[in-house]
Prior knowledge:
The chain is 33% helix and 19% strand. By secondary structure, it is an alpha/beta fold. It has one domain (3-208): Ribonuclease Z/Hydroxyacylglutathione hydrolase-like (Metallo-beta-lactamase, Chain A, 4-Layer Sandwich). The strands form 2 sheets. The chain has a 6-stranded mixed sheet. A hairpin with a 5-residue loop joins strand 9 (143-149) and strand 10 (155-159). The protein is elongated. The relative contact order is 0.12. The protein binds zinc ion. The site of zinc ion has 4 residues, from loops.
Amino acid sequence: xxxxxxxxxxxxxxxxxxxTPNASVLLCHNPGPMTLDGTNTWILRxxxxxxxxxxxxxPDDKGHLARVAAAAGTVALTLVxxxxxxxxxxxQRWEKLTRxxxxxxxxxxxxxxxxxxxxxxxxxxxxxxLTVLHTPGHTADSLSFLVDxxxxxxxxxxGDTILGRGTTVLDxxxxxxxxxxxxxxxxxxxxxxxxxLPGHGPEHDDAxxxxxxxxxxxxxxxxxxxxxxxxLGLQAADAKPMKVVKRVYADxxxxxxxxxxxSVKAQLDYLAAQG
Length: 275
Ligand SMILES: [Zn+2]
């Protein structure tokens, strides 16, 4: 294979990159500690179909939204994985551009005649069958989607519930560890053998081991927090999250400590509730 025809690899900005026969990604140029290389905007359509489904148009980035609209053709439906602005900031501009109905867990982000999505719902569109999974924890409104039909293996589109690299942060505004652990359990029932299409970071051939690794990681961190509390002679209900972060996340870039603080707070809340 010549260099010219080598398939594109993540991260590829400003170009549509085909990942499966049914799914392509347009990576937004909004890299950062919380977005990894940027937001993955997914364009789904079965081979030979004109209409598409767009998942997470992304932030309010005019150039990105225009590129997605051009690549997506007739957008039959737009889906939102969760409320964070790196996924939803561009919705208003996107709606004007495409007139697509938009569906999300929260009514606030739905547009057109669209109704909120619920876990277990199946949506047949663009030659594909999508199954909605409600997977709260990263945020309360986080959704994941199973993508079946078309050609090739099924996919798990995971938003920020499972990332392509590293682990996700729980937004303690409405995300809880109890919810998140239950969501990971739900995902293990479906993940094996599916291609992982995450909200940030690269895709993976099999979502199964990734989800299992996430579960292990969460339990490891919980153990570390328990041990740190014992060390400090503190109860979960009385501990200052940052004090715990400094111990448990000593090996992690300080830039992510504010985010880690949220995760530790979620863990302390979880442990405090367990008593
Ligand atoms: Zn998010």
